[in-house]
Amino acid sequence: MRSLNIDAKLSVNKFNVDEGNAHIELASQIELSEFKKLAQICPAGLYKIGENGELGFDYAGCLECGTCRILCEGSVIKKWEYPNSSFGVEYRFG
Ligand code: SF4
After folding, report:
1. Would you tell me how many other CB atoms lie within 10 Å of the CB of residue 31?
2. Is the pLDDT of residue 4 over 80?
3. Largest CB tally within 10 Å, which of 25, 46, 51, 78?
4. Mean pLDDT of 3-12
C-alpha cells in the first residue's frame, strides 16, 4: 500500500503572501484550550505551541480552508478574510 506524505503534497502549492495585509489575525487574549484545537486541526500546521508554551501563528502558508474560522472565530480568530486578489495559495496537483 502506498503511503501519503502530506508535507510533500503541500510543498507543490505556491503562495503569494500579502506581507502588508494579514488575511487572518488573532485575538489579543487567547484561551489556550481554544488554541490547542487549532494546533491540532489546521491542515497546514500554522498554529504552534512551543516547548515553553508560547503560541505561534503564521498566515503565510494558509490553505484558505476556513477550518479555524469555523472552530474559533470570535475566540482565537479576530479577523478571517480571503486574501486580496492575486494573493494567497495557488494549488498545484500532481
Ligand atoms: S484557513 Fe485552514 S489552513 Fe488557513 S490557518 Fe485556518 S485552518 Fe489553517
Report:
1. 12
2. no
3. 46
4. 79
